[in-house]
Each structure stands twice: as C-alpha cells, then as structure tokens.
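Re-running the complex after MR caught last week's input typo. The corrected sequence lines follow. Everything else is unchanged.
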Amino acid sequence: MDPQPSNAAAAELELKGVGVSPGIISGPAFVLAPEDESVVVRDIRPADVPHELQRYEQALVATRQQIRDLQHRMTESLGKESAEIFEAHLLMLEDRAIYDEIVRMLQHELKNIEYVLHEVTNRYAQALHDLQDEYLSERAVDVRDIARRLLHNLAGRSSSALSELAEPCIIIAHDLSPTETAGLNKSKVLAFATDLGSPTSHTAIMARALGIPAVVGMHDVSLRVTAGDPVLVDGQHGLVFVRPVAERIERYERKRKAHAAIRLRLGELRDQAAMTRDGYNLPLAANIELPADADTAVLNGADGIGLFRTEFLFLNNVPSEDEQTEAYLQVARRVAPATTIIRTMDIGGDKFISHLKMPQQVNPFMGWRAIRFCLAQPEFFKMQLRAILRASTLKNVKIMYPMISNVKEVIEANRLLAEAKNELTARGEPYDENIEVGVMIEVPSAALTADLIAPHVRFFSIGTNDLVQYTLAVDRVNELVTDLYEPTHPAIIKLIKHTIDVSHDHGIWTGVCGEMAANPMLVPLLVGLGVDELSVNAPGVPLVKDVIRSLRYSQAEELGQAALRSGSADEVLHNCHTLLAQIAPEILELVE
Amino acid sequence: MSTSISEVKEGIAPLTRALTIQNRFGIHARPAALFVKTANRFQSDISVEKDGQRVSGKSIIGLMTIEGYQGAILQVTATGPDASEALDAIEDLIQQKFFED
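Corrected-run output:
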C-alpha cells in the first residue's frame, strides 16, 4: 500500500450508499484496482503449439485446485449453499466446447495461449452477457472470473492481492466477485464499500455473515478513494467518509465507544424480560434472513423469531422441499421453546431473484410480488407450505403471509395450506395440525379491512416499511422523496391503531416487524398504541429491550393518546424524542 | 434416408430425440450442470439444438446460451456406441424436471 502524504491536506469527502451490514469502523483504504485486462499477443511457430497447450493444461490443473480450495473454505465458513457457485465454476473451467475451440484457434491462428484463451472466453462471456434472462446473463461474470484466474496462473502470479493483505484495512472496490470475497484474508478486512451491489448481493451477505460493516451501491467510491486514504465507514447509515476530519472521527469514536459500553451493559439484559418499569411484558422477537441468524437472535436475548424472511433461501437457486424443511427446522430447534414466525417468500418489490424468471415490471412494489406471485404458482407455494408444516413438529412454528391486500387472498392461501396438510397426512408425515396462521398488514386496504381478515387468522404483523410507502405514496427507494417518508404521519398512526383495535376485538394479537419497531424513539409510541409484540433485526434487540425496560406503560399510553389527537407528524416525532430523552438519554445519543 | 438398426448399434448413425423442457425455471446454471454431468457419463457425442442454434451437450456454457425455458423443445442428438442409453438418461433428467419442482 502506497502512502499518500499529499492527501493529508485534501478535504473530507462524504459518500452515501446503501448500508447493508451495520457497524462503525475506520482504517486505511485498500483499493482493489480494476484488473489490467490487456493481454499481450505474440506469434508462435507450429512447433510451439504442444508447449502452449501444455502450459494451458498446467494452468487448468492449478486453477481447478484453487477453485476446490475456495469451495472448501467457503463451505466451512458460510455453508454449502454459498459455495455452490464454485461447482458451476468447475464445470465451466472444464467446458469441452471452450477447450476444443482453444485448441482449434491455437492451431489455426498460431498465437500465444494467453491471447487465445482471452479471445475465446471473451466470446463466450459476451454470448452469455447478451442473453435476455438476467440470471443467465450474470453468469458472464463467472466466465470472466475463471478466465482471469487462468491468466494469472499462466503468468505464474498469485490469484489475488486480497489474500495477501498485510494490515487490517477497508476494502474499496468497483464490485467483488465471489472468488475475490471467498479468497479474502478475513482477519484483515475491516469493512467493504463498493460501487455496485444491493442488500441481497454477494458482498452484502458475506459482510453480514462476517459481522463487518458494509456499504454498497456507492456508484463511484472506487474512483474517489486512493489506496491508503483514511476511511470511516458507517454501515448502519450507508455512509463512507474519506479523509474524515478530526471532529468527525471524534464524534464517531464517541458513538462507537457508547455503542460498545451500551452493548456491554445490554449484554447483561439478555436473560431479562422485555418488561416496562411498571410490569407490562412485551414480547420482543427478532427478524432473521438466514437460518444462521437464529444464533445472533438467541445471543441477543430475543423472544423467538418474529419474522423469518424466507426469500433469502431462494437467492441462488430453488431449494427442494427437504432443504427448506431443514432450514426451517434449524431455526425452530435453535429458538425452542420460543416461537418462530415463518413468512412465506416475499419476492418482488426490491428483492428480485432472477432465476425465478419474474417479468420486468415498471412498478414492482405494486406488481406481481409476494403472495400474488405465490398464489399464481400453487405447486411452488405448497412446496414451501409443506416444508414449513414439516418443521412445525415442535409446535413452535407459525405461518405468515406477506403483502395481503384482500381477504380473498387469505382464504385462498389457507385453502392451499389445507391441501398441503392433506398431502403430508397422505404421506404419513407429522406436523402441527393447529399451526397458527397470520398475515402481514402492510397494504392500507388490509389495515382498513382488518375486521374482514381477522376471522381467518390468529395474528397480524404490521410491516411498517411498506405500510408507510403505500399509504403515503412514497417510494422508499427513491431518494428524491425521502423527506415525505414519515412513519409518524397521522394516517400511519390511525392505521396502526385501527389494526390493533380490530385484532383485540377479535381476540387476536398484533405485532410490528417493520423498521419502526427497531427505532428506539418510536418504540414507546408503538407500545402506547397497544401493540402486543415487537420484532426487530437481531442486533437491535438489546437496544429496544433497554428502551422498554426504561419505560413506564403509563408514559407510553400518554404518548399514544397524544399522537392520536395530533395532526402533525413533526409534533408526534418531537414528543417521541422528548420522551426518549427523558427515559433513556444515552440511547438517544446513540441513535442521533 | 433410412438407418439400419446395426448402423445405430455401431454408433455410425446419429439418434435424435425431441425433448420438452418441463421444469419451471428452464435450463439455468444448476440444470445445465446436471445435464453436462449426465452427458459426460457417455462416450457418445451429444449435441443440443434449439431454434437453429446448436451446442454441445457437454458444454455448460453452451447449454446456458440456448436459453431453454419451460416448454422449449430441444432436439437432442447422440452419436456413438451408447447413444441410445445417453438419450434415455437425458430424457429421464428432463422428465424429472432436473429434480427441481
């Protein structure tokens, strides 16, 4: 890493992206330069052909071994599923069509093997890249990844600078290939920041699995950071500060220390109930994305899983019924006797899974997603329902349908659930016959007709992210309208209150599993509106628990009543702020 | 042109079968991998043709580029001593929907 003394005087730069893995860290930048892909061309004699081919064979052997090693390491650290891509890499490496074409071109054009390899693989990568199917089109990256590896081996270079990091640093890159992330020396990586990527991209998943901060979708961070630049990453808020000023470092350092101190104290809360000072008990569960997250949930003292987002299991391929059952069982067993609420897959909106062949939609959030997608493919949906049922033998599993906008959808989904049960009975497979079913309330029409839906379910869970977006007509991924995204808008308060009241009238309960539940400022408001359960991302559990334990139920009720009377989102937010400042000032400082 | 049984047995004449892709997601990476692994078990040359595009049945990348979606009809041709067995195995794989659904 080159020192860059000239940068010392350069101004601080604040860059924004999408925070996909929380945490605050600073360190020197390691900029992964785009590879120099130019390949030297030289003529060879016909007599050299066997020698060139032999070099190629040797490179193939070396590359095969490297991929196997990666696959092995990846399987150990992240599980079999994450390593599956390397199985395809091995087959691509050994692809007969490519091999035959390389031999043919080598003999006919009499150029060096590097050039021939580059030309042939490029042609194949381009052919893949040009395909309509988005998932297949992305495989071009894999072909290029393999070609690069072969070229490195031909040159006798080691595969990746990333495996040789000398000191702990923050990785800045345009994008990271699966090979690059798998080859990382993880003990030396403090954080990631990349130009491309989304919350479901490989880098994001990897960062969360490693528990290090990551910000993706930064457009041009790799061009704006120089190797060795001091960088500060705030993975929670998706911020990257390049050459941060002393004041910024101090503020974040205070924040980080406060985090650490509170975490330490919060760690002691693990076995304590989420109970208000005046003895009101509020179950506090965790939201998870992958089975392994259940560990984090338990370690953070969550009362079970309030939302298992199963669509993440479908990221790389369609898991079989057995594989799904195993994943669900793993979570149910880990949290037993506490409950796991498994949400059937919510694909579409901002989560695309290209191998599921979803059509391009102009307005995906209002399009063919979640329950709509599932009801249109009953066999596919029933496979997931059977898997969930098979995981319910400990009687601690509940099912939840996402994106309900109409009671008809609930009735239809329940009908398919009954079919799934019959199919299992016919097979002689055990399951919990009394498994409870609930729905997400995230579309205003569902909130307003909660009375029609309630007779068909045992619980509601309010998904505030979508409820706010749909009620206020504010696209939550459009940064031009973020100011209008107000969770304390009177319309939201009324819809939440209405949903809770209707559920209580029908003898069922209502939880909140959206971002509102994880915001320490808004927790007392939700409690005051009468919510029965909160579910937040696993690392956020201790923070929310601390707020609940600092609160009196009477204070929350007062806040809720005032919110219902108020006609101003700002006023409600102000009251929430004031109350948190009063009951838990140290937590307020942490989140501000 | 007629082909005698003995010619097929000796692997001179190619055997072709039209097979319809059944699985919902078509030939994406995983089914292509399974196809290649199956084809590689046989000595015969295997080629796959769809809409005039012809690729080797032993090339994962080739198979991905034909975009075999659900309902697509593939002309699978095998030439060699075990052509018939190879086609049976591939037909079985396609009928089993690549063990996907």
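None of the earlier attempt is carried over here. The radius of gyration of chain B is 13 Å. Residues 41 and 93 of chain B are 13 Å apart (CA to CA).
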